[in-house]
Design the sequence.
C-alpha cells in the first residue's frame, strides 16, 4: 500500500482556500466595485486617470477587488485603439521610503539584467530613471502601490508621480496612482499635499458582515470542497465567528481551511462544527505565538521577566515586582533597561495582544490604582517561544523550562 494517496473527501481543490488564490468573481462588494469603476472611467475614455486611494482593515478584499477590476479594465480597454493601458503592481511591504519604492518600481519595469542597486543614487536621479522607463512604455500607466503604508511619512513619491505630467517630467504618459492601505493612521497622517493628490478618489472597504462572509465562503467552497464536505451550519459558523471578530474574509477562509484540515487529519469525511471551534483555537494560538515572536527586544525582555515570575507562582504580579526582574534580565542581556513607565507600556501591549491578562486594582483607602498582570496563554507555549529569542539571557527558572 502506498504511503500517500489523493484526498477523495473534504478537499477537491484546496488551493482555492489559500491566501494567494484570485477569485474569478467578487461577491458582496457591489458598492465598492461601483465606486471603483466610476473612478477608473477616465481611463476607458482615454483621459488622464484619477488617483485612487483604497483603505480598510485587513482581509476585506482591497487586493482581490483591485486585481479583479484592473484585469477587467485591461480586457475591456483592449478594444479601443487610442487606449494603451499598462498596469504596474508593486507590493510595498518592506519598502520604507519613497526612494525604495522608486528603485523597486524601476526594477519591476526593467529586465533582470538591467536592475539598479537599491542604494547609492541621489533620489532625483532615481526618479529621472523611473520617468525614462515610464516614458518608454508610454500610454496610460496605472501604478498600483499595495500596502503603501510601509513607506510611512516618507511619501514624496505619492506627490511626485501623479504630477509628473503637469510638471513636464512625462510627455507621452498618462500616469495614475492607486494606493492601497489597511493602516488608518497612514491615511490620516499623509502630508496635506499628498492627501489632496492621492485621495482624489477615496474608497473605503468596511469589514464584512456575517451574511457577506457566508456568501464569499459559499462561492469558494463550491470549487474547493467536495459536495457534502461540510455539515449543516458549518459555513455560517465560520462566517459568524469571523464577522464577530474582524469582519475579514481572510480570517473566514483560514478558519474553514483549518477546520477542513482537522477533519482530514481525523480521517473524517465531513467538517462539523466542533472542527471549526478547534480550528479557531488553533489559529488563535498560532496568532498569539506569532505576536510574541514579533515583539521588540524590550517587549521580549518584559515577557521573559513576567514568565520568570509566573514559573515561580508569583503571578498575578504588579509592575513594581516585574520591573526589577526586567532590569536584571536586561542587564544580563546587555540591553539598556527602559524606565519603569516605558516598560509598563510593553506590558500593556502584551495584554492588548492577548498574551497577558491585566486587572486594575484599587489601593485600599489610600486611593490610587495599580495593575496586576498574569499570563492568559499556556506557559508551555510561552516557554517554547521564548527559547528561540536571540540575545536574551534567560533566568535559570525559565531556562530550565525550555
Ligand atoms: N468580496 C470578495 N469576494 C471573494 N473573495 C474575497 C472577497 N473579499 C475578500 N476575498 C478573499 O479574501 C482574502 C483576503 O482578501 P484580500 O487579500 O483582498 O484582503 P485585503 O483587504 O487586501 O487585506 P490586506 O489589507 O491584509 O492586504 C483573499 O483570499 C480574497 O480572495
Ligand atoms: Mg491586500
Sequence:
Amino acid at each position: 500500500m502506498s504511503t500517500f494517496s489523493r484526498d477523495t473527501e473534504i478537499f477537491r481543490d484546496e488551493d482555492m482556500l489559500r491566501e494567494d488564490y484570485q477569485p474569478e468573481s467578487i461577491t458582496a462588494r457591489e458598492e465598492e466595485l461601483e465606486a471603483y469603476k466610476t473612478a477608473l472611467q477616465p481611463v476607458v475614455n482615454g483621459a488622464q486617470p484619477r488617483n485612487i486611494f483604497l483603505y480598510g482593515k485587513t482581509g476585506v478584499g482591497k487586493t482581490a477587488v483591485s486585481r479583479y477590476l484592473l484585469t477587467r479594465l485591461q480586457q475591456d480597454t483592449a478594444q479601443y485603439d487610442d487606449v494603451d493601458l499598462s498596469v504596474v503592481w508593486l507590493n510595498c511591504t518592506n519598502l520604507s521610503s519613497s526612494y525604495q519604492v522608486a528603485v523597486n518600481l524601476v526594477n519591476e519595469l526593467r529586465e533582470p539584467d538591467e536592475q539598479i542597486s537599491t542604494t547609492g543614487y541621489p533620489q532625483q536621479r532615481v526618479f529621472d530613471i523611473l520617468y525614462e522607463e515610464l516614458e518608454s512604455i508610454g500610454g496610460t500607466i496605472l501604478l498600483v502601490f499595495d500596502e503603501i503604508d510601509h513607506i510611512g511619512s516618507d511619501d514624496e513619491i505619492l506627490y511626485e508621480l501623479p504630477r509628473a505630467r503637469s510638471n513636464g517630467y512625462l510627455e507621452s504618459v498618462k500616469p495614475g496612482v492607486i494606493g492601497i492601505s489597511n493602516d488608518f493612521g497612514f491615511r490620516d497622517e499623509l502630508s496635506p499635499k499628498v492627501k489632496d493628490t492621492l485621495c482624489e478618489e477615496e474608497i473605503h472597504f468596511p469589514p464584512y458582515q456575517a451574511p457577506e462572509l457566508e456568501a464569499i465562503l459559499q462561492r469558494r467552497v463550491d470549487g474547493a470542497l467536495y459536495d457534502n464536505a461540510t455539515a449543516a451550519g458549518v459555513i455560517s459558523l465560520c462566517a459568524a465567528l469571523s464577522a464577530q471578530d474582524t469582519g475579514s474574509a481572510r480570517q473566514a477562509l483560514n478558519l474553514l481551511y483549518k477546520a477542513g484540515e482537522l477533519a482530514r487529519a481525523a480521517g473524517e469525511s465531513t467538517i462539523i462544527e466542533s472542527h471549526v471551534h478547534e480550528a479557531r483555537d488553533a489559529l488563535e494560538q498560532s496568532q498569539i505565538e506569532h505576536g510574541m515572536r514579533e515583539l521588540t527586544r524590550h517587549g521580549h525582555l518584559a515577557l521573559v521577566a513576567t514568565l520568570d515570575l509566573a514559573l515561580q507562582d508569583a503571578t498575578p504580579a504588579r509592575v513594581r515586582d516585574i520591573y526589577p526582574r526586567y532590569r536584571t534580565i536586561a542587564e544580563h542581556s546587555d540591553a539598556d533597561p527602559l524606565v519603569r513607565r516605558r516598560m509598563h507600556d510593553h506590558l500593556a501591549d502584551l495584554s492588548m495582544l492577548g498574551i497577558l491578562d491585566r486587572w486594575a486594582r484599587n489601593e485600599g483607602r489610600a486611593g490610587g490604582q495599580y495593575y496586576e498582570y498574569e499570563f492568559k496563554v499556556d506557559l508551555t507555549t510561552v516557554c517554547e517561544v521564548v527559547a528561540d529569542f536571540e540575545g536574551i539571557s534567560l533566568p535559570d527558572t525559565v531556562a530550565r523550562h525550555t
Summary: The chain has a mean pLDDT of 94. Residues 273-293 form the longest helix (21 residues).
